[in-house]
Amino acid sequence: MHLYCIGEGSPTVMIVGAAFSFDWGLVQPEVAKWTRVCTFDPSGNAWSDPFQTPTLIPPSQNSNQTPIEKTTPTCTDRVDEIHRLLTKMPIHGPYVLVGFSVGALWERIYAARYPDNIAGMIIVDHAFLPDLGKSAPPHVSPSQGSSHRYSPPVLLSEAPIVMGFEDDSNFSRLPARDQELHMWALSQHPVRPGPEMAADCFALISEVTGERRYPLGDMPLWVINTSNESQDYRALQRKLLALSRTSKQIIAWHSSHMVPIDEPDLITRAIREAVERERRILEKP
C-alpha cells in the first residue's frame, strides 16, 4: 500500500479516509511544519496495489449455506490495512488519528480494537445512514450557491460512493499537481466504499462499543461537522460527541462534505490541539 509521510516530530498524525492521499494537499503540508503526518491510499486506489481478490467468505459469516466469493473490501479489510501500515511503519505510536467520511468509521473501529495506539482522534464529517422513513432535505449542488449549506453525500446509492472532490467549488484550491493526480486516480477505476461496506462498518461499531456511554473513555476527541440540518445528521453528531468524556465539537459553517478543501484550517487547528496535548502529557515528569 502507498503511504506518504512528511514532516518530523511526534506524535505522528495518521489520516485515513475514502479520499486519495493527495486530496489532503491543503492540510498535510501545514501539519508537516510541526510534526510528522501520513496519508495513504487504500488497496485498489491510486498507487496502492489492487485489492487482493478473490477470497472466500465462509458460511458462518454470510447468510448462504455455502462459501461466497468476496470481490470488494469489507470494513474489516480496511481497518486491517490501517493496522498493518502502522505496525510496519518505523515510527512508534501512539498516533493522532484523523478519519474523514467513511474513514471515520474505520477510525472508530481501529480505536476500539487498539486504544493504546491512539493519542487522540479527529472525526471529519462522519458518513451516516439516514432514516429512510424520513424525507431527506433536498440536495443543492455547489454551483447553486456559495454558502455550501447542503447535505453531504449519504450512503444510499447502490453504486460505490464517489467522494466528488472534483465537483466541489474549492477543488481548484488544491495544488495543480494534486488536482492532476486526483483526476488520474479517478480514471483508474478505484475501489470505492459502497453502502454494503458502510452497513458492515456500523454493525462492527455496534459490536465493539454496544450502547455504552463514553466507549472511548477519556480519549481526546474532536468532532468536525457541517451545518447540515438533517435530524439524522444532528443525532449522529450528538452520538459522536458522547463517545468520549473529553470531546469537542467544531462546526464547519462554510463547508460542504468536502471539509478538507472547503475549510482545511479547521482540521489543521484540531490536529495541532491534539498534538500539543499529547506533547504536554509526554513532557510531564
From TrEMBL:
Pfam families found in the cross-reference section: Abhydrolase_1
SUPFAM superfamilies in the record: alpha/beta-Hydrolases
UniProt domain AB hydrolase-1: residue ranges: 29-231
Family matches, as InterPro entries: AB_hydrolase_1, AB_hydrolase_fold
Protein name: Pimeloyl-ACP methyl ester carboxylesterase
Species whose genome carries this gene: Tunturiibacter gelidiferens
